[in-house]
Structure formats: structure tokens, C-alpha cells
Amino acid sequence: MTISYTLKVADSHFGSFSKLLFCWKGSIYMLLYKGFIVFVVLYAALSLVYRRLLTEDQKHPYTKVAQYCNRSMDLIPMSFVLGFHVTPIVNRWWAQYTSIPLPDQLMCVISSNVHGKNERGRILRRTLIRYVNLSAVLILRSVSTRVLKRFPTMDHMVEASFMTQDERKKLESLHSDFNKYWIPCVWFTNLAAQARRDGRGRNDVALRLLMDMSRRRELNLYWAKCSMLFHYDWISILLVYTQVVTIAIYSFFAFCLIQRQFLEPLEPGQEEDLDMYIPLSTLLQFFYAGWLKVAEQIINTFGEDDDDFETNKLIDRNLQVSLLSVDDMYQNLPPAGKDKYWNESPVQPPYTTATAAETLKPSFLGSTFDMCMCEDPEQNQPVEALPSSPHTRTPLLTHFLAAASPAVSLKNFGWGSRAHPHLRRPRVDSSSPSPYSNHSEDPEAVVCIEKEQMEDEESQHMTTFC
């Protein structure tokens, strides 16, 4: 079940977020406590071995090893590695959520464009929306362990009325080595076309609204989301990428077991470190591993963890709402009448006692609405734009403004080469009207182009002479 704490942090006051630290289900403590216990036990075991079992001669090489581990820990940028690993996984997690197919848009289109209050009309609308839900269940059954446990076989799908026995036989008779989640969408298109031929759709616009792929209409959007879920399940985060981060983090804390121990000085008279039997800073740093656990939990959000998507609840909601929309609510409208504010303007809905203080706040009209302007009337008189002064241009700026652009250079005219097709320009006879004659020519640009042409001709003559 998804852990929701939105109501607990509705108001940002003292202690509102601190209360979340005492939640257990779905918390970081639940993810880390087993690894934390193992780390503490290993640390205590090494500490006892160093303090009680090693002799003075044996402690010296242990100290050397600890110093080496201390230098090696600087080679693992743990914060960077974890941030670089978690960011794409969180983006992938949210993209998977937005790819879950919802029938809300399709059920509204079906209810408004497939007509008929008789039994045939009801069958068409209910069958169309059932095909939509069947496609979603088939794809969720392929990617979610919760849904697969709920519908392990096609018999369970028939028993749940997502498909009939005839539809099951038709589905199983189509031989394909690939996932068949797309078949109900094809049934949808054929049935929608049949409804149009039977006169259930008023015109071709309604049919196009349902299925038009060129304009990204409803069925195509639904189909695309089902396909994205399949591809997210198929193409995972690179295994090498996950292994590198996991090895780096676990190696870091393996070095911590040795380096963070209390060590006696190698030479007499050397200052000793404070003997902390409990390494508080190291234990707090262990919660860095929580980022790795977060990535491990949401890398596949269709499992059975506490914060994974509730796909079974989503299936129940989609089927119930969609059938209600296309059947019970078809042309079942409340009577249209005058509203309470028919003769009132402006309209002001009432407030309760708990929210009456909000009426005292003025409406926001813009950040510059209350800006104090100059009181001198002469400063507010309109004036004409000042002409540009030649002193405002420096020689360097004038040089850059007069420089010819490569896009209009004479070198780029003609047909060019295959490597630079974007530099091709059509050749136009001087007698024929130019397609660019509507645009005024810049005299400075023309001079620069002619100068560039002359320099090219001189360079060619020099090359020939040499």
C-alpha cells in the first residue's frame, strides 16, 4: 500500500515534519535496519579483536592498513555517485507512473459519440470500454507481480468478466511469440468502425476522434501508454550501472569498518585520538546508504513493496468508473436550470467562519500594480524615439556589424557538396525576378560580399602563378 503523508504536512509549522521521523512503515529505518545491525556487529567484532586479541607488534600493521583505507576512502565520491545514480531512477519512476493507462478520456468520448439507449447500443459502449480495460489488465499482468497473483490464468480473467469465453478462444487462437496486450485495442478499432457503419456514430468525426493516429487521439494515446509500460519493463537500467554504484557504496563502508576504529599512536608521545567506543559520525554516515536503498526500491515500482504502485486498486477503479460512465450515465443528466447567481454580478460564493479571514486579503493584481510612479507630469509625457548616434558605435562593433555572414557568402551559393546540403542556394538569372526581391538589401553587406569575391579571385590568381 502506498504510504501517503500529505495531510500530515498540510501546514508547515514547528514539528510537522519532525513527526514523520517516527513513522515506521515505508521509512528509511525499515529499509536500513538489517544492514545497520550487520554493520554494527562487524564494527564491534573488529574493535574487540584490535583491543583484546592483538599484541603490540600486531597492532602496528593493523594501523598501517587502517591508514591505507583512510587514503582510499577519498577516492570514492559517495555523494556524487549516489546522486548520479538516484536521479535517473527517480525520473524513470515518475515516467512509469505517468505511463499507467487510464480510461477516463476514452470513456467520455465513447459515451458522447456511440449512441443508442437500446440493448445494442449498451452492448457496443460496454464492450468498447471493456476492451480498453482488458488491454490495461493484460499489460499490467505482464509487469506487476500483484496483478499476476490476482489473475494468474486466463480463466481468472474470464471469471472477472474482463473477457468472454469466445474472446478468450479468439485471443488464444492468434499465434504470436510476443505479448498480446495490443489485441483488444485492435478489437476496439474494428468494433468502433462497425458502430459507425451501423449508424451508432453520427459522423466520421466521432470515429476519427476515437482512433485517429495522425492527431494523437484517445485510443492511440492509451495504446502508447500500454506500450511504454511494456518497454519500461523490458529495458531496465543498465546492470553495469547498478553494479558500479553498489560496489562503490559497499566498498566505502567496508573501508569504514577498518579505518574508523580507534587506533593507538605508532610512535611514543604522539597525540592520541579521542577513543569513541560508539562511532556516531560513522553511524550517521551510514544513512547515506539510504539513497541506495531508495534506488533499489523504486527501480521496479510494480512489485510488492510498501511504496509500489497499487495496481489492483487501480484496475478496480478503472473498470467501475468506466462502466458507470458509458452505461448508467449515458444521457442520464440532471435537469438544466438557472443557477443561484443568475441575476447577480459579480459572483461571490459564501465563506465559512473558519475561512472568513481570507476575504480581508486583497486580490493579487500584479507585482507592479502598487508601484509608485513619478509624480512629475513632465516625466510622464510621451516623446519620440531618439535617433541613433554614430558615437555609440565603436570601430570593433562596426566591424562585426559589417562582417558578411557565412550563410550569405558567395562561397555558399550554388549546389555545394553532399557534406553541406544546408549551404545550397538556387541560382537565379538576373533577368528573372528574385524570390528575395521583397527584402531590402544591406549596402554594407553587398560591399563586403563584393570585396570577399575580389579577394577570392586574387588568391586564385596567386595560387596559379605560384
TrEMBL record:
Residue ranges of the TM segments: 28-50, 234-258
InterPro entries noted in UniProt: Bestrophin (IPR000615), Bestrophin-like (IPR021134)
Tree of life domain: Eukaryota
A GO term, aspect molecular function: chloride channel activity
Keyword flag Phosphoprotein: no
Segments of skewed composition (Low complexity): 429-438
Cell location: Cell membrane; Membrane
Membrane disposition: Multi-pass membrane protein
GO cellular component: chloride channel complex; plasma membrane
Region (Disordered), start-end ranges: 419-443
Keywords: Cell membrane, Chloride, Chloride channel, Ion channel, Ion transport, Membrane, Transmembrane, Transmembrane helix, Transport
Catalytic activity field: chloride(in) = chloride(out)
Keyword Electron transport set for record: no
Job description of the protein: Forms chloride channels.
Family: Belongs to the anion channel-forming bestrophin (TC 1.A.46) family. Calcium-sensitive chloride channel subfamily.
Entry protein name: Bestrophin homolog
